[in-house]
Amino acid sequence: MKVVFITAKTFLNPVFIIIPLLMLLTTTAISDFECYTDVAPPAHENEYSDLCRESPAIEEEKTHGNYKATISRAGDGDCHFIQIKKDGVLLYHNEEIGGHFYFGADLEQKTDPFLQITGASNLNFVFSKWTGGAHCCFSLYIFELSNEFKEIANIDGGNFLPSFEDINHDEIPEIKIWDDFLAYQFSCFADSAIGYVVLKYTGDGYKVAGEYMHRPAPDLNLLVSKIESWQKLLQKRKDLENMPRSFMQTITNLVFTGNKETALELVERTWPSDFPEKEEFLKLYDDALNESKFYQEFERQL
User: Fold this and answer.
1) Which segments of the chain does DSSP mark as H helices, in order?
2) Cis, peptide link before residue 52, omega less than 30° from 0
3) Does residue 11 lie in a domain region?
4) For the sheet containing 174-179, what is the strand order?
5) What is the pLDDT of residue 14?
6) Which residue range is the domain that position 61 belongs to?
7) How far apart are CA 29 and CA 228, in angstroms?
8) Are 251 and 166 within one domain?
9) Does 182 lie in the same domain as 132?
10) Is residue 78 within 8 Å of 97, Cβ to Cβ?
11) pLDDT of residue 223
12) 146 shares its domain with 170
């Protein structure tokens, strides 16, 4: 069995290597896009809108045995939709007005959507959806075809497309996601910190894999120069809506490696005495963390 694992290359391509301490020093910007919040509404699965019935034309087609998958355009190109059929019978339909569908898990490559990613005896079908806009929103859909047709995952990646990587080399790839729970929080989108998340297949779906996320707490004494730099930036800006990106990303890296207490200690060490909004900052951060699609499950595993 040969499985090709695909890394997402979206219009946004953040690269963070999760290595203790080195990851804390990451200062790479996420994106050069402007900050704004226009997002297309989600489509209704298995329903045709009127626009999607207007002069449909197939853009791409993939087959495997008696399964056929097509990606089509309709309504002068405004409607994009995907269909999965077996022996000519429609099993699945998903559409997006102004959006885009892609076979596999890579927006820039025309890849085979028929894969074996949940075990050697399982045949899967994978496609990605982008709702359109500068960055949001991306989803990864995974189906099982072997015994019966069923959806086993609809993974909402928010502003980032989930991607496959076989981390433990068992031929069942994990899924990497960048959690955008802080999008537009404490900065514009381009400077928003993100959390690194890994999901693994468990037989009945995908769950957070804390064993691939947890790292030992670093020694904050090794970050003295960075702390001094962040203090100066905070004293200069004095604005919770314009926080230093590297400071926010370091805190978030600590939180998403199971070191929330160390993150709080870092805030205490860094926060200037003449910048009185620390408690407000901590509350806003915690509120955002509570809205994360993945963190609560990770925290329960610590």
Assistant:
1) 224-237, 245-255, 260-270, 278-290, 295-300
2) no
3) no
4) 163-165, 174-179, 195-201, 206-208
5) 39
6) 37-159
7) 21
8) yes
9) no
10) yes
11) 95
12) no
Both structure tokens of 211: 């064993």
Q: How far apart are the first and last CA of the chain?
A: 35
CA angle at residue 162 from 58 to 197, to 5 degrees?
170
d(CA 249, CA 192): 8
Tell me: do 100 and 116 sit in the same domain.
yes
DSSP H or E run through 96: strand 89-97
Same domain, 48 and 103: yes
Do 130 and 102 form a contact (C-beta atoms < 8 A)? yes
Alpha carbons 277 and 239: distance in angstroms, whole number: 9
Q: Domain boundary residue among 110, 128, 159?
A: 159
For 71, the 3-state DSSP assignment is strand
Whole-angstrom CA distances from 41 to 52, 84, 153 are 15, 22, 20
Cα–Cα distance, 185 to 117 (Å, whole number): 35
Domain count, the chain: 2
Tell me how far the alpha carbon of residue 175 is from its chain's centroid: 9
Examine residue 2 and state whether it is found in any structural domain, yes or no.
no
* Angle CA 256–242–269, to nearest 5: 55
- Run means of pLDDT, 10 residues per run, the chain, 302 residues: 37 35 36 32 55 91 95 92 95 93 82 90 93 83 90 92 93 95 90 96 93 96 96 87 94 98 97 90 96 96 94
Tell me the whole-structure pTM to 2 decimals.
Answer: 0.81
Alpha-carbon distance of 295 to 254, in angstroms, equals 12
Q: Mark which of 159, 180, 203 sits at the end of a domain.
A: 159
Please indicate, yes or no, if residue 269 is contained in any of the structural domains.
yes
Strands (E), 116-194: 124-130, 138-144, 150-158, 163-165, 174-179
- Rounded CA-CA distance 122/192 in Å is 38
